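Thread: Newbie trying to understand structure tokens

Hi all, I'm a second-year student working on a class project, and my supervisor (Dr. K.) asked me to get a predicted structure for one chain before our next meeting. I've only ever worked with sequences, so writing a 3D structure as a token string is new to me. If someone could post the tokens and maybe explain what I'm looking at, I'd be very grateful. Here's the chain:
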Amino acid sequence: MIAFTGARVFDGQTLLVDHALVVDAGGATNIMPQAELPQRTKTHPLAGGILSPGFVDLQVNGGGGVMLNSAPDLATLRIMATAHRRLGTHALLPTLITDTPAHSRAAIAAVTEALHQGIPGIAGLHLEGPHLSVARKGAHDGSLIRSLTADDISMLTDAVAQIPNLIMTLAPENATPDQIAALTEAGVLVSLGHSDCDYDTAMRAFDAGARMATHLFNAMSQANARTPGLVGAALDHPRVASGLIADGVHVHPAMIRAALAANRGAEEVFLVTDAMATGGSDLTRFTLNGREILRRDGRLTLADGTLAGADLSLLQAVRYMHETVGEPLERSLARATVIPAGILPKPPELDHAKAMIWIADDLTSLRWLSEL
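---
Reply by user tm_fold:
Sure, no problem. This is what the structure looks like when written as tokens:
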């Protein structure tokens, strides 16, 4: 047994001081007051910092120089997981952006095999499209957007039997409430996004079983005085969690503060990176469905300036939420760890030594507990 001392310990809700993270021989962790450590406990003093569960990211399109869309296979998944582990991500959902049915099937097959092999970091799959709204397509290829069909539902129902953590982002314009209910009943986590729907349509979709909103504010109908849109519905529904890209590019900090204050449901806003191939790499450009995406000044854009994912890590998002948005650090940490983990039907294990990270006090660097 070894006790890590000298750092604050985040237990999922609170940043504890004068506490130790105790790790037994099997890697199980326990938190206890430092003064209550048994005599002769071996200690590992740390010069400050924060001990926290590793991050959980439910929307990761790429990393390490590769995109899931470009090659939906095991090699790509390994590269992505390795790249994001260096950024402190313990569990992620590889995300396939709108593509062909063949690509969707290939991504499902690859993630199924990754879970079977136990590839570290791969916790499920997020299919973002193709059942979206062309009016709010963002960087998605409009020519591939289409309505949800019975064959799609059959494919997803079969997939969720092998991939318990399966998110499908869709727009109510291209899926009926009955179809959403069928997916939800099968175990698929339905998220609304890339949609121009009105408030009432969104609320019907949420009532039918959709439980999430994909990158709140971005690529969706906005909240106005008389037309609350999808933004208003996501914040108003009692059972909806919303992903948020907190990078200073996608959403103004004043709107983030307004959303946190307005969210009336039991579910919380959580952080996502929406990371592309640039995540954990020094790439300056890459292609998606034949279109070049440029990396400049913390932004990823198409040639016409359309935002195309984010140049962001979850540690950067936590720092932005704490330092710029101004919320307590423990809330920001929760939005990158226990809150997204708790949304999943099969949450990743966060209380094991292999899942713990040490974060510097200035929130600019981190190391895995196993590396200390």
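A couple of things are worth pointing out once you decode it. The CA atoms of residues 319 and 363 lie 6 Å apart. The mean pLDDT is 96. Feel free to ask follow-ups in this thread.
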